[in-house]
């Protein structure tokens, strides 16, 4: 959840066009990752990728990092593969793969929207600093997750 919220927060910090582009790229690529997971295609350790996503995305929010549009999309897409793969691997045997996948993609979109909503405080007095602090907390959680994954 922290990675999904961070995508929305980062998009809100970056503004247009990334405020809408990042929350579209992540679920789309996550669905591809889900298909890879359902198919059992081997990829590098998923837990490490997910932990790194929380650490890196939190760090990007903390630093209010402003990469080129293409780079931001690649970063988000890279981590989306791991999140989707994890969902695909966890597909319950009795579940409909299409419905299950649609559910996690839609839920991810809502988490991005919540992150964008929270990110609107950037224009309030002290809001940018509050967002950066939130990014720091997310990055700290990511570091803890990474320690557990190792």
UniProtKB/TrEMBL annotation:
Keyword DNA-binding included in the entry's annotation:
no
Which Pfam families does this chain map to? Answer: HupE_UreJ
Tell me which InterPro entries the record gives.
HupE_UreJ
Q: Which UniProt keywords apply?
A: Membrane, Transmembrane, Transmembrane helix
Ranges annotated as spanning the membrane: 25-57, 69-86, 98-118, 130-149
Q: Which residues form a coiled coil?
A: none
Q: Does the keyword Transmembrane helix apply?
A: yes
Taxonomy, superkingdom = Bacteria
User: By what name is this protein known?
Assistant: Urease accessory protein
């Amino acid at each position: 959840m922290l990675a999904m919220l961070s995508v929305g927060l980062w998009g809100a910090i970056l503004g247009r066009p990334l405020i809408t582009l990042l929350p579209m790229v992540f679920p789309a690529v996550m669905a591809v990752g889900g298909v890879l997971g359902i198919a059992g295609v081997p990829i590098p350790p998923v837990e490490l990728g997910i932990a790194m996503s929380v650490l890196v995305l939190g760090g990007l929010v903390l630093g209010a990092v402003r990469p080129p549009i293409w780079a931001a999309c690649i970063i988000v897409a890279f981590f989306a593969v791991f999140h989707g793969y994890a969902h695909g691997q966890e597909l319950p045997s009795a579940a409909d793969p299409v419905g299950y996948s649609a559910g996690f993609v839609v839920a991810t979109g809502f988490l991005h929207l919540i992150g964008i909503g929270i990110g609107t405080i950037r224009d309030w007095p002290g809001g940018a600093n509050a967002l950066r602090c939130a990014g720091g907390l997310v990055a700290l959680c990511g570091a803890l997750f990474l320690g557990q994954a190792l």
